[in-house]
Design goal:
476 residues; PH-domain like; 4 domains; 7-stranded antiparallel β-sheet
Length: 476
Amino acid sequence: MIPLGAIRGMVYLLLPLAIVVFQNVGADDLRRFLLIIAAVALSSLVFSSCYQLLNWYFYTYRFEDGYLHVKSGVIIKKERSIKQERVQTVNIRRGIIHQLFGLASLQVETAGAGGESEFNLTAVAYDEAMQIKESLEDSGKVPTHQIELEAKVNDLAEEVSGELPFKEYTISIPELFIAGATSGRFLLLFSILAAIFSQVVPFIPETFWENLIDQVTSTALVTVILAALVILLFSWLVSTVAYVIQYINFTVRRKEERLQVTWGLIEQKQLNLKLHRLQALVVQEGLLRQPFGRATLVAEVAGGGSKERDYITVLFPLLRKEKLQGFLDAILPEYKLPESYRPLPRRSLRRYLFRVLAPVVLISIAMLWLPYGYGWLTFFLLIPAFFWGLSRYRAGGTFIEENQLALRFRFINRYMIMMMRSNIQAIQVSANPFQRRQDLKTMRAWVLSSPEGKQFQVVDVETAEAEIIWGWFSRY
């Protein structure tokens, strides 16, 4: 714990200082720059080590009678007692250094903890972390409705296949590579490289740029295009491998009233989610994944900190759509995949087309005034804009059954939202003057989601359908 915290503190202090110093030294002052950095690194390491030693000495905890008692603080002393019933999740993370020394990082999230973990051990023995986790999660009681649910699921599985359901899903390596290849993260890698490049540009001599421009202008256009494609391919491969490393061994398990999710190679993570915090399921079909019939399953979760939100959202990285219902039957039988949707009325189509075509027409007209006479080429953008508006119209739809509402819509990706009626915080039906003339409505639904509430909407729904959904929710 002490070396890890010391190294982390040194890096946090060293990196910004190195950037500031490096920007103010010339090429002849490289030796002085390295000496300054070495001196700062040594002093910050000593200071961080002393601070971490004192922090470790004064940090104590114990678990007794259903309470977790924590004492901490070097100058300002803090003492806190956390009731077992308030614990929302107990999450375990293991980086490379943790794995080398048999350690783990443990975070305890409670109701009302805000953006930070209420109890955080950055480095503790892995076995001890598991003991704390099991102690906090062991309530000793199994709810009656959970027993009834388990019996219902078991009876259904025996009726279909003659054996008990397999309540664990693991993504295979080939599927993980497909997920990485279709994630679109290579665009993020481009933005990171561009940010780094913008910081390096001031230090590159002008002669380099002159030589580069001469080389490019004297090279055939085909060669330049091939070089760009090679760079794009390299970025795509790097992002795919990074995705596989991040999500390898991804496994989701259903254990009583909890979901347990584990994944990672370089940094192993084990995260737990109580089912009462699950507010909605989102089936996200990316633009690159939809042609392959695959989607990502995302969870909208209430409570917990904003940091926790970053890594418990993805419930499963990639699933074939035909296997989605099987996944729900085994892991989340409370949710049912809609068999069909109530589509948007035909008169909504022109509104969807107008929203995407009108801006393109205005931009194209403005481009006609540009020099060189190539502004008219922008009118070709009307073709993809038309198909985009058409796909957004076709994606829109609603579905309700006894206790579940489902909404489907598209912006770039296509989304299908499944919400239990008891988890919906509010439903709003609205219409602007243009919608009222065509007897259309906009339907919105809100659920609790960390770090703040989440809204989903379908635009230009049939008024009769919106009123049916409104009545379904208001009579609950």
